[in-house]
Design goal:
- The protein is mostly beta strands.
- Helix content is about 5%, strand content about 50%.
- The chain contains 2 helices and 42 strands.
- A hairpin with a 2-residue loop joins β31 (about 325-330) and β32 (about 330-340).
- Residues about 1-20 have low confidence and may be disordered.
Amino acid sequence: MKKYFLTFLVVVAFLANPSSSKAEVQWDGAQVVKGQTGKMTFTKDVKVYKKNANGTYSSMTVKHNNYFRVYNIEKYDNKTFYWMSSGYRVQATDLVVFKKVPLNIRASFYDNPGYINISRQGYDHIYGKHYFDGSEYIGPGYHVSIDENLHYVYMRTDGLTEEGYIDATDLRIVETTKRDEGLYKLTADAQGLGGPMDGGSAGTKYLKGTVFQSLGLEINGYIRVQVLGTWGEDFTFRYIPVTLLQPVQTQGKRYIRYGVIGEGNRKQKELKRFDEVSLLTEKNATAWIEIEGETYHVPKKALATIRPNESPIITTSFLPNDTLQQLVYTNGVYKKTVNNRFEAQNDNRFIDYHETEQTFNYEKDGIKYIFEKPITEGSKVIRIWSGVKDEGFVRAIHYTFTTGAGGAGTFNNVVETSLNEFFAPGYGYISGNSSELRSYE
């Protein structure tokens, strides 16, 4: 990597205040200004040209050894072109001596610099690609560091990492701005881009009225957005021009019908029955809502236009009823052996349960659950597994609940816990992370 001499004064000034654009910055014997990529001299007098707005060309002769600032670089077809401040473009030849300004010095002029690839040479780096610290919502993430060039470490979702360097002359630096993470609607048909630059890799063309979730970042006149959709679509990230987006207006008040988790960008919110929210938009089985100035999505069926019914209160018959003789789960068949106990034929699997004046107690395969009486939305639930105690609560009591495709059927007054497990009065555990009830008799 080519090294450049930095005066002690410049280094101290940069480290003390890396985002200051007011102090004069010196590098390689000359002042550097915001937006400057490098500097250029010529080995002999040459004539340079620029194209005017009316299609004509202007020229001027530059003297050898005179210093010129370079503000933009184009790379394509194995050629490199340097743009001078006055609009003249010069192709790299043996007559041109170019020195790049180290990337960390260029970045010192910006409060929140963003890095965009501007090279069209080869296939290693895509034109318009945006490099930034952080993850793409619940997808892979980058760790970016800069000195003379940019070094990145790409953390893949499979746990492996990739890393590499990008030459400073392949990058444009622009200011980035934090945006809200609300919903935005297209005001005209638009192409979604893979990066925040005109001419970048193009994705799907979206129609006027399409709604996107903002990912909280504006860069180079584009907002980074996430497509609202079903599985697969909602991990698609695109850049849309700011001028083509407007905030989505609320469609009125709604009420939460039962306890549910609101999912937002990198955040969650426990929503309770009767909570009042504002509806933003709906798509397929999902609704996007706003509460306390934040945007979340919930199942559409969790919303009501009028105040929902009161939650049931469970005081009796919560545990498996006496008539059940067999429970079949995805992980095995459990048969009743004695009162309050079912056993599977192998793997030491069993179901055990009993009731006290204060609690319902249920155990399946060594995992114990203690439910505080009476069972209501918000009442305490304790789960003990391998000696570890998890304290949770009843998130919702569903009037009806149907187990997954091919499951045991529909149950009444089903208890959903904050531990993401479901229990039905008269049957016990019916669904969760480890198994699901398939049939019973």
